[in-house]
Amino acid sequence: MGDSALRADDYCYRHPDRPSFVLCDRCARTICLECQTHVDGKVLCPDDAHQVRMAPVTPIRSKQRRRIRRPALNLPEGSPIASYAIMAVLVVVFFADLFAGGAILNAFAFTSGSTLVRPWAFLTAMLLSPGILSLLFNGFSVWVFGRQLEQQFGRSRYLLLYVLGGLGATVFVALFGGIVASASGAIFGLMGAFVVFARRLGGNMIFIYAIIGINLVLVILLPGAVSWQGALGGLVVGAVTALTYYFEGSAAKARQRRLMLTGISAVLVVLALVKALVA
To answer: What is the pTM of this model?
Structure first.
């Protein structure tokens, strides 16, 4: 789909050539990644962020200050280092496998029969790219979706999201067949999380659904780097993981979020083991 599918308000108000699906939480204007400023758990445009920072601050007593908790969503400022690191690892592994004649791909890719034979493949598959097109797709998707998700959730939760999305892809393959030979399963996890993120910010969901739908159709029609089972698994687990990140506020909700994330990981591992043992 080209730019014709975008509305006029799907472009950054300060950079009209940059499409974006993120709106300022105060003025609802579209802002690109460069213009996003995270203040007190909200995504603001530069104008509103400046107004907030210039507003007078009421002094807080020391006893009150000690009782203040960090917000559940710690939105970091600065470069999306984790996204850049993932892209770098994908490139390094791809060229290492190229020079090794495909030995790395053969040893660390995941198939439906790998659960007990190569259990490490549950995690290593999310670092592989079997071809240059797969590498370009994975890297571009991390650039488009990953950077904004990292800014929203923070580096540690973003990395956990990537890992759980990749794990969801491999577990779905273990349950329903197919092959996960690349990081595309984890990439679909980022897409699922981005749907949750964009809906909360009022993004252009039709365009986002169209992008994901086109990629799912391509996976079905042109299998290879990832099967539809892996794509679906990553998509579902990524969306569910992102939903848990919005359990914020009280300590009870924080504990609930941790329990849910632990439960997601445990359920995925148990399902894969049960399937392998009864097969």
So the answer is: 0.72
The model's pLDDT over 91-110, given as tens digits with 9 standing for 90+, comes to 999 999 999 998 998 888 88
CB atoms within 10 A of CB 110: 30
The one-letter amino acid code at 252 reads A
Return d(Cα 128, Cα 131) in angstroms, integer: 9
Distance CA 123, CA 87 (A): 16
Angle (CA) 208 210 214, round 5°: 125
- Torsion from C-alpha of 107, 109, 111, 113, nearest 10 degrees: 30
Over residues 54-75, the pLDDT tens digits come to 766 555 444 444 444 444 444 4
How much is the CA Rg of the chain, to the nearest whole Å? Answer: 20
**Which residues does residue 110 pair with via DSSP β-bridges, in sequence order?**
180
Class of domain 81-278 as given by CATH:
mainly alpha
Tokens of 26: 């105060």
Q: Strand pairing partners for 179?
A: 111
Listed by start position, the domains of the chain span 7-67, 81-278
pLDDT band (50, 70, 90) for residue 76 = very low
